[in-house]
UniProtKB/TrEMBL annotation:
UniProt domain Baseplate J-like C-terminal: residue ranges: 301-381
Organism domain of life: Bacteria
Lineage: Bacteria, Pseudomonadati, Pseudomonadota, Gammaproteobacteria, Enterobacterales
Name assigned to this protein: Baseplate J/gp47 family protein
Organism this protein belongs to: Rahnella laticis
Sequence similarity: Belongs to the Mu gp47/PBSX XkdT family.
One Pfam family named in its UniProt record: Baseplate_J
Domain Baseplate protein J-like barrel: 94-180
UniProt domain Baseplate J-like central: residue ranges: 203-295
InterPro entries listed in its UniProt record: Barrel_Baseplate_J-like (IPR006949), Baseplate_J-like_C (IPR058530), Baseplate_J_M (IPR058531), Phage_Baseplate_Assmbl_Protein (IPR052399)
Amino acid sequence: MPYNRPTLTELRARNLAAIESELKGTGTPLRFSNLNIIGTADAGLAYLHYGYLDWIAKQSVPWSATDENLAGWAALKSVTQKAANVGTNNATIFTGSTGATLPAGTVLNRGDGYQYTTDAEIAIGPAGTATGAITAVLPDPNDDPTGGGDAGNTPAGTQLTLDVSISGVDSTATISTAITDGADIETEDAFRSRTLLAYQNTPQGGNDDDYESWALAVSGVTRAWTVRRLMGAGTVGVYIMIDGTDTSNNGFPAGSDGISSLDSWSGTKATGDQKRVADYIYPIQPVTALVYVCSPIKTTINFTISGLASADSTTTAAISAAIDGVLFESGNPQGATIYLSDLLVAISNVSGTGGFILTSPSANITTSTGQLPVRGTVTYT
C-alpha cells in the first residue's frame, strides 16, 4: 500500500504531543513559548526531510525520474533527449544588381525578429535575382528554453530583411518554399516515453520496434509505424508523423517519400522530413534491408451530427477535440479500424451533447495501409 506522507500540521501536532507527554505537569506549551517554537521548527525540518525522501523515491525509477536523473536512466539504454532542429531552406530569392554578392553568414530578419543566415556566398545573376540556402539561428536557451526550432518554421512568401545593408543587394528577400523542418527540444514527457519504450523493447537487430524507435529518435518525429515489405520483398516501410505546435499540416511530414540519400541503390531518394529520418536510420539498420520512409496518406473523414444544431462554439470545439482524440489513438497507417462506439463514447462525454445522433459515419471506419484518418468537416443539423 502507498506510504502516506504526514503533513506539516500533523508533524507539529505530533511534536507538541511528545513534548507534553515527556514533560509531566507542564500542560500545553504556550504559543510563543520556547518549547512550542522548538517543536514547530523541528516539525518544519522533518517535513523537508520527508520531501527530500519523496524526491529521491521519484528519481529511483525511470517512469517518475526528472531532469538529469531521467537522462541518466535513459543513457543506460543509449537514449538521449532530442535537441532542437534548425529550420532550413534552399529556395530563398534575393534580388539586386547583377554581380553583387551576399557573403556567407549574412543575417536576415523575419518580421518578428527571428533570424536566419545564408549558408554560402550568393551572387546576383544576370536577371537581377539569385536563389540561395538559409539556416535558422536558434535563440539563446535563456530566452527560449524549448530551443526555438519550431518558431523558425515559416510559410512560403514570407519576406526577410537584411540585418545590414549590402551594396547592390535589395534589402528584402523572399522565402519561396515553406520552412518546415525546425523542431523544439524534446519535451520531458516525450523523452520519458521513449526511455520507457527502450526498457520495454529489447533491441532485436531490426524488428518492427527497432525501426520505430530509430525513427522516433529524430528531432520532431512524434509517431512512427513499421510496415514490412511495403515496396516488395526485402523492403521495410517506416511511416512518420511530426505532431508539433504547427497544426497547418495536421502533423504530416513535409517532404517526399523514398530511401536514404546515403544509400547507393538507384531507388527514389527521400527529401525533407523523410530524408532526415531515412539518413538517420541508414547507418544503424540491418544491411539487407531497403528502407523507405514515408508520410501517411491524409484520409479526411467528414462527420454529421444531428440534435445539436444550437450547440455553441465551446461545445462544438470540444466535440472536434474529442473526435481528434479518437482518430489520433486509433488511426494507424498499418491499416486500422476506428470503432463507431469509440466515437460515440467520446462525443457523449462532452458536456451539453445529450440526445445527439451521429448520422455519418454510420459504421466503423476502416483505413488501408498507408492511410491515416483526420477530421474533416463536422456538420450539425
